[in-house]
Every structure is written in C-alpha cells, then in structure tokens.
Amino acid sequence: MSPPEIMQGGLVGLMRRVGTMKNGERDRSAQKSSWSTEIDAAIGEMAVSKYLGLYWRGHRGREDDILDGREVRTTVYETGRLPIRARDLEKHPNSFYVLVIAKPPIYSIRGEFLCADAKQDCYYDPEPKEGEPAWWVPQSDLADILR
User: Fold this and answer.
1) What are the structural domain ranges in the chain?
2) Spatial contact of 135 and 123, defined as CB atoms under 8 Å apart
C-alpha cells in the first residue's frame, strides 16, 4: 500500500474507533489495541478492494466490507488464522472471508474461505488464547482469492 493509501485507511480506522466509543460498543480485539485493530482492518479492506479492482467505501457495520460481498479479516500475526465467528455464520453464511496479514506498509492477502464451510469441528476453538470463540481456519486451507 502506498503512503497516501495508508493515510486514507488510517483515517477511516480512526473514525470507526471513535464511532464505536461514541456508541458504547465493547472492544472485541485481544491481539492489540482497538485503535490499531481498526486501522489495520480498514487498510486490509482497502488492500483487498485494490487487488480486486473495486472501489472501497470504507463503511463499517451493516454493509459488506467489499463491494462484491466479501468480508475481510486482518491480523498482525504472520501465521495467523482466519477467524469465523457465530455472528459471521448468521449474517454472511454465503460470503467469502479473506485473510490479510498486516506488516505495514505491506498488507499481504493470504486467501479466502467460504464462511459456511468453516463450521467444522476441526476449526472450532471455544477458548482461544486471544479473542472470542470462533472457527479458526489455517492459511493452508485458504483458497487463492479469485478476481
């Protein structure tokens, strides 16, 4: 990502974080501060949109992360896994979830996985070291992202 793109994504992440504070939402991030989580998440979405040649809206909440219906999850861990939570299965069972690894200024797209296919015992961790219970899909099981 270029410096201006990182600046744009960073500003969107800051606006999102201030919005969650204003709305009294709880912090779901366990891997780092909610400020950097929101910033990396926004830039991760921007990276996937750029890769796909799609406009990035920078929305948060009810709309899909990417205009083609994909959802994006970003982590700072090089060997990080793609988390699929119960609310993801309820809200977007037929969406593809994309994993991005954030090592600013590099945001690496590792692959995608169909949300509904994640609901397997082999992926489920009811007590992860970080975050909330989820189905954690390893990078080795992700498919190449299709344009």
Assistant:
1) 3-141
2) yes
